[in-house]
Amino acid sequence: MKKGVFIYSNFDFSVKNAGVTRMLYYAQALANKNTAVYLLTCSASPIHKNTFKEIHPNVFILKDNNITQSFFGTFRFIKNIFKFSKARAEEQSFLFYPSPLVYLEIIALFYLKFLKKCNVYYELNEIRKYTSTFHEKTSIKRPKYSIKKIIYIAVFSTLEWLLPHYDGLICISTAIQTYGDTFNRSTIRIPILTNPDLKKEFSSEIYSQKDAFNIGFSGSIHPIKENLTSFFNVLGELKKNDYPFAFNLCGYIDKEHHHLLFEQIAKELNISEHINFYGHLNAKELSTFLNQQQLLVIPRGFTLQNNYGFSTKLSDYLDHGKPVLVTDVSDNHMFIKDGVNGFIVPTDDNNKMYDKLVYIMTNYNAIYDDIQKNANETSRNSFYYENYSKSLRDFLFKASYGSQHEKNVSNV
Question: What was the pLDDT predicted at 401?
Fold first, then answer.
């Protein structure tokens, strides 16, 4: 029987970012000679077999997107993918990758699940009402911000009432699976995913500094979510003690955060000459960037958003075989063993972060080979997308799957 998995979202699947990478790994894990996977961005473009390009064996992406965010455009998109799914597969499963835009979420569940009786699943990778965008408390002194926060929390708290109606939730961490179980007893845990056999392309661009220990960070640059304000303070201590370092960043950052980090905090700490921002990089340049760093960091502090989530940028880091330094938030401690396959420190402890950085910089040449070897084994044993092929297929194509929790976790 020919099967089809249709992954739909408001996010543009043709753009390289951590979320898109995760969905591409899902697609490769699911695709075989009997199962085709289609990644569809909410689009006003026609949807038929000639509007897709094959990017991996039996994995297709909608090309020439005319992305729409309108209500009626979204409704037409859902009708189009349903019609297309019936033409391309005898058995269909739909997977929603969420975004802050709510039209698609509501319309798709109503049309596909309630009206057309399809199997519809939900990628639960964060609790959106806990977003770091609204981390500050409401205050009568900030009425505009406070109203926005109240509306945002109300909207996404209300949308959680839809979770019981999905055929299942794919959860990225143990904490979020426990949370998801309170709404829907059909859950599975799939952690971050990697491809240890990833073939990488590199350019001749330079994203590191000579005569410095190069520390790298990629992905969305958010001072609160990524705890970068505190990390800059740690780098300030390295500067005071004359450690030669460069902190190299790439990814999306808004103007307000750019000003805060690079023009205010970096200057106050006298580390501007050690900070290098390379903007948003394409896949080839991102691989070049990551390959040139000596250490890759995810310095997240404890927030509800970080506790429930699991940083998907860690998969990019592990794919490039570089030592990683993370904080003990979410499921990091289940996979990263300090001094064995990477480094891990408590959240929100600048002293421990500083001490660990000094240790790594001082002993780098002696520890690098063992750390890299063990990190590669962790990537292959615990995160390789092929390890989850059967689990994902069984979950998406067995209505009676029930509350089965993926326990395919390997500790190093």
Answer: 41
Contact status, residue 27 vs residue 5, Cβ threshold 8 Å: yes
Share of the chain above pLDDT 70, in %: 95
| Common-topology check for domains 3-193+385-396 and 213-383 | yes
| 59-63, 91-95, 183-187, 356-360: segment of lowest average pLDDT | 59-63
CA angle at 187 for the pair 130 and 302, rounded to the nearest 5° = 30
- Using alpha carbons, select from 174, 165, 164, 137 the residue that is nearest to residue 153: 137
The CATH T-level fold of domain 3-193+385-396 is: Rossmann fold (3.40.50)
Please name the residue that has the structure tokens 């500790």: 411
pLDDT tens-place string over residues 95-140: 999 987 788 999 999 999 999 999 999 999 998 888 756 567 777 8
Whole-angstrom Cα distance, residue 76 to residue 72? 6
Write a three-state SS string for 248-312.
EEECCCCHHHHHHHHHHHHHHCCCHHHEEECCCCCHHHHHHHHHCCCEEEECCCCCHHHHHCCCC
At position 411, the amino acid (one-letter code) is N
What is the rounded CA–CA span in Å between residue 52 and residue 48? 7
Q: Tell me the domain boundaries of the chain.
A: 3-193+385-396, 213-383
CB 206, CB 292: distance < 8 Å: yes
Dihedrals phi, psi of 269, to nearest 5 degrees: -90, 0
3-state class (DSSP) for residue 23:
helix
Long-range Cβ contacts of 285-289 (<8 Å, 24+ apart):
285/203, 285/205, 285/207, 285/250, 286/16, 286/218, 286/250, 286/316, 287/200, 287/201, 287/202, 287/320, 288/202, 288/203, 288/205, 288/207, 289/207, 289/216, 289/218, 289/248, 289/250
Q: How far apart are CA 250 and CA 290, in angstroms?
A: 10
The DSSP letter of residue 11 is: S
Q: What's the CATH superfamily of 213-383?
A: Glycogen Phosphorylase B; (3.40.50.2000)
Read off the DSSP letter of residue 27.
H
Query: Both tokens of residue 327?
Result: 């904080």
Joined tokens for residue 27: 């697609």
Helix (H, G, I), strand (E, B) or coil at 60: strand
